[in-house]
Structure formats: structure tokens, C-alpha cells
């Protein structure tokens, strides 16, 4: 294809990418590489990438026709972004870039191909169908691929998510009552503006949809619209969505058909003709009067804003109007101005204006209207447990999972729902919602890709100091000593304090203790995990080593209390022997408080670390692990478990190998007890006889008493309680 035909195509493609929030990484006559979500934050980056890809395919077909074939590949994941003075000049590297390049070489022209990670991240925003596996050089075996078919349409992000089954609405009764009161006041002619404020995932959309859905269709004119992240770059976008719903105009409807619908509805409703051209202009439809285009741009904008407010007020004269607008934090300036003006003038009309936004949205434009503000917090522990029970079920085998979910999500309903869905989709859970079963051990709650994009975008909006503090803080599991965090970050005091305030204001970090030492923690475990996973592996190892040293100094007088936490840091720091030492201490503490399952997990992990990393003196270390494991198994599984025998046999083997006679006695005693309780007293008596030879020359009265105890206990089970035993006589002498 001639270059003079390629250049306009590349120019238009670049414009499409930038309009949808993407960044061009490379462009030539043979291809184009773009990134969404890095270096510029973009929450729904996978959905925007899919939308751009479909538009590019359509553009290529329209401009080049059959003269050019196009293959577009999409992948999602963590990337490395180089430092650059301008985001557009930053270099983006990593697995997703390489994978997308590789898949784009597949023999599937004129298709948009997405990986499973992109499919998961795009969620309900995009329709995809699974493809047969592609076989070509460099392809990953068994990799699932999908064809992007179309973008799902909706007035708001909520409408794009509701294809999935909804969980019950939990813990929002008071908020619904406040909305209900506002509705009745509006019906009585006292127009109301209600603003629902809350962090992502707390249920702003769910509450409003539950409320609006309960209003009978004939009782109100229900209109809905929602802002998307890229709407900030355009004018009248959100109001246009509401008007399209009013006149039943589809998103993809051709201009002539849309105009006919608006004119017919205008006539049927008897609306003011003076408002028609401004409303048509908002909807990007041909105006009726030639004089309209003769007006200046600012004058047209002013009249469009006035007309939108006047139209909604006139509708309220016929029957109450409920206008729901979601995600004000992304709203365009013109739509915001219209809503602010409507809020100020709605007091004398039958209008209920419901707005949702995040806490960081500047609400000053609506201050004069004095809206009713409903602030959402996370679900309480009881409410969270109720939702978790609905999602996974009440099976006692899931107690550990329920606790992990509660800790990671901290009352965020969306985080809970998406995390459980991700566990099911990745095979960690099997069964049906509300009746799930774990398929194996669950080491850590993984951040779902669609939640990760939300967290990543939120993180990227922080300044460089706040990012540094957040990354260092993410290394700590649980509580974060403020003094340790400050030393590890190594920023000047003023900059550290400013960064910390920024993280608190963003609701990422919260204080959990102020005396005697200030302690912090992440508000959600999923946020901590997502930020931690952004750190390069080598840097993460060093951070864990520093955190380990800090915590050991901080808790020097009570290290045992924090042994499990110290073990995690030592493991992540690749200090295998120290990790095993802390794991053993933590397991022994767990046994004392009858937490046998937890103890066994830690003991198995400790043994694995010793063996997998060839720790010096691993045999001597493992003896204590096996002895503790045998004791924990006795309580956890009963004396009939052969795992008990295996643990003590392994300990015996290692004692003989290392020449450790003292712990060999403990291993033999454990094995003898297993035989005695499991109905093999003769085998137990044989082991007791071995003890006698071990005691020769030891002079240890404790061992002698243990031997005597085992002899007469075995005699009892053998039916010979009076049978004399030389060891007993020697001891009694």
C-alpha cells in the first residue's frame, strides 16, 4: 500500500488512541503500538483499548478497503514505565507489550484478538467470544484467546456491569430511607438534590439503582446518565446521554432516524419550540433554524445550558422527574454547569436530582444548592460476613477463606464480589455461588484484574513522594509502625508528612493506633497487595530485608508475638534459615493455643524452605519441625493418622543421621505412643526397650521416668499390668 495512503490512516489512528485515553508508544508504516493505563492512569483501560481497537479496524476498512489487512492484539498486565518529563514520551516495557506484539503476528487478519487477562479486565464492558487455540512461533501453550466482537452499550458504567447476578443489598437501609424522603418531598413540589459520596466499590450505583428501580414507571420521568473517564475531554456528553434516553435515541442510531424521533416526541409532548435547536445541538443533531449557526460559540453554549435546564423543569410540570447522574468526578464542564444550575432552581419544582461521586470530587459547584449529602462507609463486620456467606456459603471448611476475604476487602462490597468471582473463574473455588468448595490451599487473595485497574489508576494520580511512601508501606503486612516507615522511606520530614497526608486523604492509609507508638495500615488488603505487586522483584527483596530489621528492632522485647509476621518478611527477603526459625516459633505458639491447622501449615512451609533452598544444617533444623508436626497431628487428626507415624519416623531418621541422641528419644517416644494408642502395644514395648539402651550412661531421671511410664502403660494394654520390668525396679531403687 502506498505511503500517501498509510500516513492519513496512521494520523487518524493516533487521534483515536489519544481520544480514548491511550498513549502512542511506536508508529510506522507497518504497525502501531499503544498503551492504555500507562503512563497515564485509566481505570477501565481494557475496555477503552477494546473500543479503540474496534474503531481502528473499522477505520482501516473504510479508508484502505481490501488493499490492507489489519490484525490487532491486546494484552493486560504490569509494565515498567521509564521516567520522563512528559507522560507522552515515557517508555513502556514489559510482558503485555511483548505478548501483544507476538499475537499480532498470528494468521488471523481483520480481527481484534485479546488475551484472557484482557477478557477478565474488560468485564461487562465488552462482548468477546473464545477462539480456538492459535499455533504459531513463540505462542504460549494452552493460552486462551478471545475475539473482541463489540462494545456493550449503556448510559452508565453500572448498566454495563448488571449482566451478572446481583448480590443482596446489605447494610444500606438508612440511605434508602433518606432517598425515599427526598423523593416524597420532591413529589410535593419541594425539589431535592441528593449527593451520594463514597469510595469505589462501596455501592453508590447499587443504592441509586435499587431506589430508582422501585419507583413505578408511570409515577415519574426517570432519566439516567453516567460519566466515563474520557468524558472530561468533551462537552455536554453526560447531558446528551440523558436526553437520548428521554427521546429513546440509541447510541448507534443514525442521525436522520434520531432526528425524526426527537421531532415526533417534541410535538407529542407539546414542548417549547424555542428550546428545540439548543437541545438538538446538545444531541449533535441538525438544527432547524439557520440563524442558530450564526451565533457565536459562547452564545450557543450558554443557550444550550439554559435550554437543558428549562426542558427538565418543564417536564417536571407534567410529572415528577428523577434524574440520576453517576460518577461526577469524570463529568465534563458543560454538563456539570447544567446540573449545578438545575440543582439551584429545582427547589420549586417536582425534581429529584441524584448525583454520585467519589470523595476527591470538588463539590463546590453545587454548594449554593445545599444538597443532601449521603456519605457511604464500608460494611460493618457483621454486614460483611452476611455478604460473604451469600457469596461463598456457610460451610465450616471455608472459615479460613471467609476470614481472608473479610481482612482483604474490609467491607467493600465490590471488592468482595469480584474477588470471589475471580477465585471461581481461576479454579480456586468450585461449585455454585453460595455453595462453593475450595479446590486446594489458598495462599493469598489475588487482586482481580478489574479491581487492579481501579487501584492502579488511583495510585498513578499520587505525587512521586506519596507513591514512594505507599510502595514502602505495602511491604508491611498488617500494622505499619510510623517510625519504621519514615526511616525506610528516607524523605525529609516535611515531604514525608505531606506524602502521608496525601495517602490519608486518598483513604489509602488509616491510623489504627496513636499511643504509645503511631501505627498505620492500608484500608484494604487488596490495595496493599496491588501496590506491592508493582515493585520490581529485586527492590522488593531489599525492602523486606529492611522491614525485617526494623520490626525486630521495634519489637525486640516481644519477638515471639510477631514471629509469623517476621517469618513472612524473612521469606520474602530470601533469608531462608531465619524464615524457618520464625516459622517454628510461630507454629509452637499456634499449638499452645490449639490452632493446629495453622501450625501444620507453618511447619510444612518451614520444612519446604529448608529443603528447597539447601539451608546449611537443614537436617538439624528439620528434626524440631517433624517433632512439632507429630504433636500437632495428634491433636488435629487423632492418633489413627499415619501422618503422625511418618513425622516421627522422619525425625528418628534425621536424629540417627546427625547423631542426636537427645531428640531421638523424643522421636521414639512419639512413635511408641502412636503404636500404643493405635492398638499395637507390642511394637510400642519394643521401642521402649530401645530407650533402655539409650539411657545407659545418661543419668537423666526425666528419661528414666518417661521409660517407666511407657513400660507400665504398654503392660496395661497388653493385659499384664503386674508384669515386672527391670527399668521400673532400677528407677524405684
Descriptive keywords:
733 residues, alpha/beta, Alpha-Beta Plaits, Rossmann fold, five-stranded parallel β-sheet, four-stranded mixed β-sheet, 30 helices, 18 strands, elongated, disordered C terminus
Descriptive overview:
This protein is of the alpha/beta class and 733 residues long. The protein has 4 domains: 3-152, Nucleotide cyclase, GGDEF domain (Alpha-Beta Plaits), CATH 3.30.70.1230; 159-375, P-loop containing nucleotide triphosphate hydrolases (Rossmann fold, 3-Layer(aba) Sandwich), CATH 3.40.50.300; 381-446, no CATH class; 448-535, Winged helix-like DNA-binding domain superfamily/Winged helix DNA-binding domain (Arc Repressor Mutant, subunit A), CATH 1.10.10.10. It is 54% helix and 12% strand. The chain contains 30 helices and 18 strands. The strands form 6 sheets. The chain has a 5-stranded parallel beta sheet with strand order 10-11-12-9-13, with helices on both faces. Strands 3-6-8-7 form a 4-stranded mixed beta sheet. A 3-stranded antiparallel beta sheet has the order 16-18-17. A hairpin with a 5-residue loop joins strand 17 (509-513) and strand 18. The N and C termini lie far apart (107 Å).
Task: Tell me the layout of helices and strands.
Layout: H1 3-19, E1 22-28, E2 31-36, H2 45-63, E3 71-74, E4 80-81, E5 92-93, H3 95-104, E6 111-115, H4 116-122, E7 126-130, E8 145-151, H5 157-161, H6 173-187, E9 192-197, H7 204-213, E10 221-226, H8 237-246, H9 255-269, H10 276-282, H11 297-316, E11 321-326, H12 333-345, E12 351-357, E13 372-375, H13 381-392, H14 399-409, H15 413-425, E14 429-432, E15 435-438, H16 449-460, H17 464-475, E16 480-481, H18 482-489, H19 493-505, E17 509-513, E18 519-522, H20 525-532, H21 537-554, H22 563-572, H23 576-592, H24 596-612, H25 618-637, H26 642-658, H27 661-677, H28 681-695, H29 701-718, H30 726-732
